[in-house]
Amino acid sequence: MIDPDTALRVLNTLKPSPKTWLAISIFYLSTLFGGRLGVAIPFEISPIIHIAGLIALVFVFIEICIVVFYFFKKRTKHRNLKQYLRSLSPAQRKIFKAYIFKDRRSVKFKLDDGEVRHLEDLGFIYRATEITSSVSLAFSYVIQPWVWTFLNKNKNLLKTDDTIVAFVGGDDFSGREVK
What does pTM read for this prediction? Predict the structure, then answer.
């Protein structure tokens, strides 16, 4: 019996690209009009051409549906992330204040900070490197450009009573006090 993963890899290798399906579909549609607009196909191979053309049209339709689906999925995700930014917790606001009000794209935070890890998991910030130079396990986190732009346009979303404190150890800046 063939392993399903192996069979899937073989099918994906043999599967023509969407451009190939589109070319076959255009050829098929041109044969529907016979010699008037398209290519005249001999009667003997006509059924084969029609079957291949219909299969190609189905695959082109599926590819279009997939593209449309992922477009709306990405758009919905982006809208949900913006909505999340509108309802940040005070601790998360404090983190973003370190970026926006100090005009920094990269800020150091401790690795064990749960709020920072949550914002990283959501994709608002990302760790710039896997290597740290400090004993406190503080890493530089970079804010996503679209989040930077959105929060700079909507600074009122970051209003809190908290003050921003400097990171212990020099010029590096953090939105959290390190004890």
Answer: 0.56
